[in-house]
Write the structure tokens for this entry.
Amino acid sequence: MTGSSREPLRVGVIGLGWAGQQHLAAYHARPDTEIVALAGLEDRPRAKLAAKYAIHHAVAGWEDLLEVEGMDAVSVCVPTFLHAPIAIAALERGMHVLSEKPIALNGPEADRMVRAARKADRVLDVAFNHRQRGDIQKLKALIDEGRLGRPYYAKAWWLRRTGIPTMGSWFTRAELAGGGPLVDIGVHVLDYALFLLGNPAVVAVSASTYDLLAAAGFGSSPDSDKTGATDDRTFDVEDLATVFMRLADGGTLLVEASWAAHRRDGDEFGITLYGTDGGAELIVDDYAPRGSLKVFGDDGGEPVATRETVTAGRGHKAVVEQFVEKIRSGDWGSHDGSGAASLARLVDACYRSAAEQREIRLDS
């Protein structure tokens, strides 16, 4: 596959769950990609998806998928503990890789993936679909236009009342997931918050994590469809995390992520920003395609609040589009996954801060 080639990009997708289905639909919608292989352990869902998208090679094991000849790229849409081994194996075979978030269990694993991408001279990308939301993109445009002046404080969150994935599944086991809501949904919050702030470096973190409600049996999602549950009901991750971050530009970011909390029902994520010339607040309830975005200002000493019109975003379609564009560009060395790896190291620092009950400097 060369940057100038206009032949269809031949891709494979590993994983049959929600994320894998998003990747399949996004590739299928593009005339310049061809889905040639699919891997997943569940026989009936695999067969159904293979038939839907006319995929010739449908196999159970990811190892078998990587042996399919002629593939240019692969999407990795499986539990977190498998991201690094699959991505590295694919990169070593000369394939470009699009991984679901988080990039890996931890910073060292993520760094190994980046090194593999650089050695293979292939694209390694990570699917942060929330920054592709229309309301996030609108807010970013307003910030870039100077409507807020210089943002200096932000509070961003993703909170659930009862949203613990199935107890005993890989989500609730640290060795398989890397952590709880901070690394699961909180990494989305970190990504879109730092994106909106212009990606400043984080110089210090002070974090706390809690598992008080899960330990008491509260917070399991009543309609969870996560697979892989066991009988031991293992839960050795947090159910709530909060992090105070000092930024290199003098600003501050506060992040909250919960799977369980005594708050109003449903999912809510968003961000509040304070700037020198204005402020903004974005709130999204229960995965609404369009959130409520307000911008606050001052007119001769009088407060002004404007509700902005936002459009629905393109989610994984935009993620896949950008992945394909990076491959087509031929500038593969500029897209090695290092940004996602830095987020992994940041999450590591947060967990270390919570464990040691002290601020952790990232610049030392």
Notes: The CA atoms of residues 284 and 291 lie 4 Å apart. The first strand starts at residue 9 and ends at 14.
